[in-house]
Amino acid sequence: MYRSTRPWKALKVAGLGEKVLRQKCRLIKDPTSDEMQDFAMNAMFTCIRNNAFGVSAPQLYRPIRMFVIRDYSTVPDPSQLSAEQHMSLPLMPYFNPRIESRSRKLMGEFESCLSDPWNVAFVARPHTIGISYIDGFGKYQEKEISGWEAQVFQHEYDHLEGKTMADMCTQKGLYMSKERYKRCEAYWKKVENLPDFEALAKASQLLSNGGYWGPEAEDSIEPEDLNIDALKSQMRMFLQFYDKDVDPEKLTKEDLKNLAERIVYKLQNPTDNVSSESIEGKL
After folding, report:
1. Measuring CA to CA, which residue among 110, 71, 105 is closest to residue 90?
2. What tens digit of pLDDT does each residue of 9-42 get?
3. Cα separation of 96 and 92, whole Å?
4. Fewer CB near the last or first residue (10 Å), C or N of the chain?
5. What is the pLDDT of residue 282?
6. Sheet holding 91-102: strands in order across?
7. Phi, psi of 130 (to 5 degrees)
């Protein structure tokens, strides 16, 4: 990118409910123009001022296909970085980005967003994607990205399509306030006796109705690629809906496995009004 002689400035961020966040953004004719280069620099400065992983043009009231995100190309495992280390990474602009391919394998993380600063949402996305874009020097680029970098890229890409993390959240109960998220952390730390991943993930998928995570995604996600806190949070919801009087801290691993299996059975057989005892007898 060229060096602007004009001072950088933090731009106003659009909030949920504003029309610009629902528009499908248009292509940029000349990413190397002074206007676009200045806008990209101001977008990066806005990220810096807000301690953000990235920001898209529509979030800054420009319905154009461009966003900036942190550069993870030199980081072997971004999931091991502290918040401070994430924020110390340089930012890169992506003009006219495209997702050319998506892996069947999924990953999932809780996401946050500058346009929805009070909430977080658990979103499962393709673990690896092939992308193309115009870089800050006006050169066409292609590459494959995975893991955390792919998660961030897809979050910002959704904004260019008029979608938010709330739209892509796998389950309504996993779109929550940051305050509730912090309260859940205390619960997560106490839940150690999780059932085997397959039983829990199956129940999770059947309860999901958003994004890429659902019954059709069976066998496409591995334990190491899913934020385990999300599954623990779902177990808490399972207990609220199916065994309200049970203390989760006293459940054994086998108890939780049976609970997950009962949920799977109930969701797969919605017209079968049998009791929990007879359900367990069928498993």
Report:
1. 71
2. 899 999 999 999 999 999 999 999 999 999 999 9
3. 13
4. C
5. 33
6. 54-56, 66-70, 91-102, 128-134, 140-146
7. -95, 130
Select from 3.40.50.300, 3.90.45.10, 3.40.50.720, 3.30.70.360 the CATH code of 19-168: 3.90.45.10
pLDDT recorded at residue 206: 64
Q: Which is nearest to 235 in space by CA: 270, 274, 199, 268?
A: 199
**Amino acid at site 120:** V
pLDDT in tens, 62-79: 999 999 999 988 888 887
Q: Tally Cβ neighbours within 10 Å of residue 9.
A: 11
Q: What one-character-per-residue DSSP string does 256-283 give? A: HHHHHHHHHHHHH-TT----HHHHHHH-
Mean pLDDT of the chain: 81
Query: CATH 3.90.45.10 in the chain, residues?
Result: 19-168
Where is average pLDDT lowest: 69-73, 182-186, 272-276? 272-276
Mean pLDDT calculated for residue range 42-51: 95
Q: Name the burial class of residue 207, with classes exposed (0-12), middle (13-18) and buried (19+) by CB atoms within 10 angstroms of its CB.
A: buried
Both tokens of 261, joined, read: 């299996």
Look up residue 12 and give its two tokens: 């106003």
**Phi, psi angles (nearest 5°) of residue 107:** -140, 170
Q: How far apart are CA 72 and CA 83, in angstroms?
A: 14
